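Re: that backbone. Tokens:
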């Protein structure tokens, strides 16, 4: 059966005229085709499998009802897909927004000085700032190129430093380079678990050096994790560029203001979880919960370079028992 055959059969199925959906399955498929051609083709971990092949295999994972198939088709355009151009815009917004304001504030420039600052003064502030990623998923090189920032090439992921670093040498490096502040960047923060230890390490090991942590995208639930750090460390700042609002979290318990689609997705996630989580050869990331890593909620969120495990597992889980729409490359 092709995708066209599938949508035709869905539209031919008997619906109560009073409850017939506003959009036909064929209209949904047309939008999905558009998104695939314009955006979804960029998904890096699945470059060797065309999106439409993955979509059909994903819809064939089990024997779904007509209503369930429609729900899955509605899910695809509802996914928040961040493509390459989106990431470049986020890189620029991070530097021109929270990072620029923070450097100016830390440099104690009065407003008139800031507005009339000569380029050499701006360059001096940047030269005194160490830009580093938290994990290797943050493309620090691309961030620097997009913002036309030159400088030293030593910009290690702080998650690696927190595990293997010799902080005596790190402090010597900071002093030798004349760094007066540290900018930590991350492409995405979901629950905040992965980045938290690295950020805490930077705050504790750099002898009070001012630190700002700027996730390009953060879950509203994950943002809460850093409130305690802000209270404990006066030299710490935290400012995401974009925060995924609470209404876009699919919680384990129904919410009064959630989209109607979420209720149907929650049911499918629960019904399919045993199949989705089934162990397979070479498995290194078995989904913990039907909604994803955090257990209490799942996101409909995918980045072109990978799919976070905070997203619904039925979207990213891939193997013998389940064919993914956006297969995730997991961390060991």
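Recovered sequence:
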């Amino acid at each position: 059966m092709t995708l066209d055959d599938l949508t035709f059969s869905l539209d031919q199925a008997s619906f109560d005229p009073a409850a017939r959906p506003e959009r036909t399955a064929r209209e949904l498929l047309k939008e999905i085709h558009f998104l695939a051609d314009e955006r979804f083709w960029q998904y890096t971990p699945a470059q060797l499998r065309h999106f439409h092949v993955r979509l059909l295999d994903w819809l064939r994972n089990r024997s779904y009802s007509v209503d369930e198939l429609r729900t899955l088709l509605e899910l695809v355009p509802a996914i928040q897909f961040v493509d390459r151009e989106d990431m470049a815009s986020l890189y620029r917004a991070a530097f021109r927004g929270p990072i620029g304001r923070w450097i100016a504030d830390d440099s104690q420039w009065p407003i008139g000085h800031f507005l009339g600052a000569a380029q050499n003064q701006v360059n001096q502030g940047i030269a005194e700032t160490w830009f580093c990623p938290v994990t290797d998923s943050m493309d620090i090189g691309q961030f620097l190129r997009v913002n036309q920032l030159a400088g030293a090439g030593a910009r290690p992921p702080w998650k690696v430093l927190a595990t293997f670093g010799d902080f005596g040498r790190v402090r010597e490096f900071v002093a030798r380079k004349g760094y007066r502040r540290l900018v930590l960047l991350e492409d995405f923060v979901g629950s905040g678990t992965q980045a938290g230890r690295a950020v805490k390490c930077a705050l504790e090991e750099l002898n009070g050096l001012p630190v700002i942590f700027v996730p390009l995208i953060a879950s509203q639930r994950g943002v809460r994790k850093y409130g305690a750090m802000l209270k404990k460390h006066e030299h710490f700042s935290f400012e995401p560029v974009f925060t995924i609002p609470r209404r876009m979290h699919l919680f384990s318990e129904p919410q009064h203001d959630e989209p109607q689609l979420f209720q149907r997705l929650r049911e499918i996630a629960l019904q399919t979880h045993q199949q989705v989580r089934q162990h397979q050869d070479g498995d290194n990331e078995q989904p913990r919960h039907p909604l994803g890593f955090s257990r209490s909620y799942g996101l409909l969120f995918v980045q072109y370079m990978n799919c976070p495990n905070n997203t619904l597992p039925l979207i990213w889980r891939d193997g013998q028992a389940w064919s993914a729409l956006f297969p995730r490359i997991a961390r060991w």
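The chain is about 45% helix and 10% strand. The mean pLDDT is 89.
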